[in-house]
């Protein structure tokens, strides 16, 4: 029997991308088809390396060849990715900007932002993280970079700040430019200028995702960033208590205002339940159960996951090594799953913004 390229395309035309609800061939996701006798190989270009449906799509491809062409075919699938983008983010080379926000302070934005950035990078994406919290920068401590000072370099005749690279991601924090012992009395216009410089005057290079750790609430920094840079979407962090949920709603309200208009990628519930390290199967819902999920359904946005309350998270934050890099257990799984869901929502949002056509990549 002779297998043809057309047969392969026809067979894979039966495989639907579950999120984008179109087949892989229409979406232009199949490339490099090679056939030698019964050996069939091809690449599937996913919209993110952090795709949670990777294994499912690969299986569906194998089944389609076996079902529609021949059970004898020996199939080799190369699962690869090219992260999509939908609009100019205002930062050259950066495909997607993801803002991590909450209404209330101290709910775990910085923890979520750091572990999200590292989770995306772990899957193979190129990632940057901006700590835009002028009043209480966290990245220097969380990444063990206290006292670090970024270098400046001259690129195309312009002076550029070089982000600091650590654990495979590029970082900039307003805290790299201030003295923690000398509090700076920031005024509105200074804040706005300083924050814009973190985006505009830095040499970010090519990034799939630039994650922004925002300060609590809804202030100048949020407005500056969202009005200057087209943010791909916002991740809202809340804890299960009613007061946090009410504040999270206010945070969401700000992003939905017509003048700001940033899509909400979903809600992450942090400190969902307490788990003692020695009894990881025991879950104590000390602040109530299901609040984050309820908020997500009220707002009609995806729920991106529950992150348990464990002492090791705050220890790891203080020790300068974020949790996702430290243990191989419940926390790493919670953060990795969350990062995949965020990447999935970015891909869906990009596909929607691009309309019905094939997936555009820049
Ligand atoms: N799931 C968790 N389990 C245990 N400790 C946590 C968890 N999430 C965050 N923490 C700890 O709670 C404190 C506050 O977290 P974090 O700094 O991430 O919050 P934030 O929302 O960024 O705060 P701020 O509003 O001040 O910016 C930190 O000490 C952090 O290590
Ligand atoms: Mg913070």
From TrEMBL:
The keyword Cell division does not apply. Keywords: ATP-binding, Hydrolase, Iron, Iron-sulfur, Metal-binding, Nucleotide-binding. Residues 5-77 form the MIP18 family-like domain. GO terms for biological process: iron-sulfur cluster assembly. GO terms for molecular function: 4 iron, 4 sulfur cluster binding; ATP binding; ATP hydrolysis activity; ATP-dependent FeS chaperone activity; metal ion binding. ATP binds at residues 103-110. The keyword Ion transport does not apply. Coiled coil: none annotated. It comes from the Bacteria. InterPro entries: FSCA_dom_sf, MIP18-like, Mrp-like_CS, Mrp/NBP35_ATP-bd, NUBPL-like, P-loop_NTPase, YlxH/NBP35. Homodimer. HAMAP family: Mrp_NBP35. In the C-terminal section; belongs to the Mrp/NBP35 ATP-binding proteins family. In the N-terminal section; belongs to the MIP18 family. Binds and transfers iron-sulfur (Fe-S) clusters to target apoproteins. Can hydrolyze ATP. This is Iron-sulfur cluster carrier protein. The lineage of its organism: Bacteria, Pseudomonadati, Bacteroidota, Sphingobacteriia, Sphingobacteriales.
């Amino acid at each position: 029997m002779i297998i043809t390229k057309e047969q392969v395309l026809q067979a894979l035309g039966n495989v639907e991308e579950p999120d984008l609800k179109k087949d892989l061939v229409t979406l232009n996701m199949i490339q490099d088809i090679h056939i030698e006798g019964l050996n069939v190989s091809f690449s599937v270009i996913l919209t993110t390396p952090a795709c949670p449906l990777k294994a499912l799509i690969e299986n569906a491809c194998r089944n389609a060849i076996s079902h529609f062409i021949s059970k004898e075919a020996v199939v080799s699938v190369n699962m690869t990715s090219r992260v999509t983008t939908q609009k100019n983010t205002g930062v050259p080379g950066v495909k997607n900007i993801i803002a991590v926000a909450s209404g209330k302070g101290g709910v775990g934005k910085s923890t979520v932002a750091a572990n999200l950035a590292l989770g995306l990078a772990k899957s193979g994406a190129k990632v940057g993280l901006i700590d835009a919290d002028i009043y209480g920068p966290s990245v220097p401590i969380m990444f063990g970079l206290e006292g670090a000072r970024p270098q400046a370099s001259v690129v195309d005749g312009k002076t550029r700040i070089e982000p600091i690279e650590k654990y495979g991601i590029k970082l900039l924090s307003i805290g790299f430019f201030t003295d923690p012992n000398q509090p700076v009395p920031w005024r509105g216009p200074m804040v706005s200028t300083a924050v814009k410089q973190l985006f505009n005057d830095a040499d970010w290079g090519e990034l799939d995702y630039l994650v922004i750790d925002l300060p609590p609430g809804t202030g100048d920094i949020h407005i500056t960033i969202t009005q200057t840079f087209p943010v791909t979407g916002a991740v809202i962090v809340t804890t299960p208590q009613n007061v946090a949920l009410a504040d999270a709603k206010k945070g969401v309200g700000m992003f939905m205002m017509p003048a700001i208009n940033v899509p909400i990628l979903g809600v992450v519930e942090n400190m969902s339940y307490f788990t003692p390290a020695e009894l990881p199967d025991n879950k104590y819902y000390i602040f109530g159960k299901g609040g984050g999920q309820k908020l997500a359904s009220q707002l009609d946005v995806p729920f991106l996951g529950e992150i348990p309350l464990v002492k090791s998270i705050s220890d790891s934050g203080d020790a300068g090594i974020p949790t996702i890099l430290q243990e191989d257990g419940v926390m790493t799984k919670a953060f990795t799953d969350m990062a995949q869901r965020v990447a999935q929502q970015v891909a869906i949002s990009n596909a929607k913004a691009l309309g019905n056509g094939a997936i555009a990549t820049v």
